[in-house]
């Protein structure tokens, strides 16, 4: 009788994924860029759980990305080279850290929340920079090897396995995100964003749900970080820097929040633009990138993913409008 | 028999203003009780004390004999105390169907589930049943933010009912609803389970006479009179403070 839940997955949505899967054959020179895009997209998806669903803001989300990256790298350096358990460890460490700080983060709102997350991120960055024994300080960690993925696909010099691996993990994260968005938990998070007082009147312990949402987002960010460490076989301090927190927020604004393609579209456009502009104008490319970003948010406030959604949503919207008239007519 | 909901000497002040002072109210199971009074009488503040949105300075609230004075809003809801808001307060981007299904999931304590769909069959049927009972099924697929005001008032009640409350507090359920529809709204409320205790704030005396079995009149934060609609209407103090002024 009626659709319930965020727009169902349309069969045609397999097409962009097929295109991504075909990248090594279409443009083998771009698989490294492709891996970076997949990792950034996963990271952006995790931030979208906070920003687009729970209505939380964060300028320190890279803390969890970096924790996941260091956890996976340290595990590999100490001889545990199986990639999937390394990913899980990255997610676990990030999730545990998030569980510690989440009560503090969800206590405050808006600007204060930005400051708390920013502060936590800066503190972690500083701590990692000092703890040279563990993190390698400014030199980071490198020189670790990973076993073949699933025991079948060894990592190669060209980055084909790395790309396939990153894409598969992104797809898994994407499916998880999609299911979560349609679940009672996803609705509860959006309910808390739209009207926390009403959620309390439904009996929801809002604080608890937000803490859970924060932890889930951190686990996903940790997995993205672990993925970066594994596919590049190195970790730099930059992985938990303020710059990375800001970058993923930009990516999400570009792609649009609250929709499952926002992170993917944002990461694709951002990385492609960065790649293209830096080749075009090696000295001034960040300036051009800034201009392109401003133009995007001014011209398409809902983000590029929102445009795609509107195009995709045209037909159902017309149906809805017709339904409205019928309902109104029926009542009068 | 223990009352479904009872307040004992409930009081709260804001600075020097005694918004609610020493209010005793007993709501037995199956009550159809109206709370009336002129603007500023403290009715909504009193309801906020009952729901836990405000903490009292003095007094107690008991739900089925259990002291819930210190319980949080969600904890009271879980114990069976539902409410609607005076100013419509919904989820603007969710459809009517989704919002009711969310309320059902919360009632069943399942909003931690992140892999199963909200729209499971049992929940879907129950949401449709609630919307159907309130005549809101035609709006099921529309975002709540796009509904007409009267329809949003109906959705307030739908969301409260989804929690399967044993006590339901309705803060001006028919406020802003056209006259014909408000009668229909109350007729819907009449069909609610007989053992549900209903307390509603209402300004329309015709509706109060027709649907309330007992009435409490508040003025200046205190109880002025209590009794059947006829008794209350005949009370000189009430006529003075409320009805008289309204009719003047």
UniProtKB/TrEMBL annotation, chain A:
Is Ribonucleoprotein among this UniProt entry's keywords? Answer: no
Q: Which UniProt keywords apply?
A: Cell membrane, Membrane, Transmembrane, Transmembrane helix
Q: What is its main location?
A: membrane
Where does the UniProt annotation locate this protein? Answer: Cell membrane
Gene Ontology CC: one annotated term: plasma membrane
Q: How does it sit in the membrane?
A: Multi-pass membrane protein
Name by which UniProt lists this protein: Branched-chain amino acid ABC transporter permease
TrEMBL record, chain B:
UniProt cross-references to InterPro entries, sorted A to Z: AAA+_ATPase, ABC_AA/LPS_Transport, ABC_transporter-like_ATP-bd, ABC_transporter-like_CS, BCA_ABC_TP_C, P-loop_NTPase
What is the native source organism of this protein? Methylobacterium oryzihabitans
Xref: PANTHER family = ABC TRANSPORTER ATP-BINDING PROTEIN, CONSERVED COMPONENT OF ABC TRANSPORTER FOR NATURAL AMINO ACIDS-RELATED
**What family, per the record?**
Belongs to the ABC transporter superfamily.
Keywords in UniProt for this one? Answer: ATP-binding, Nucleotide-binding, Transport
Q: Name one GO molecular function term.
A: ATP binding
The cross-references to Pfam families, in alphabetical order and at most eight, read: ABC_tran, BCA_ABC_TP_C
- Name the Gene3D superfamilies for this protein: P-loop containing nucleotide triphosphate hydrolases
Output this protein's name.
Answer: ABC transporter ATP-binding protein
Choose one Gene Ontology CC annotation of this protein and give it: plasma membrane
Q: Where is the ABC transporter domain?
A: 5-245
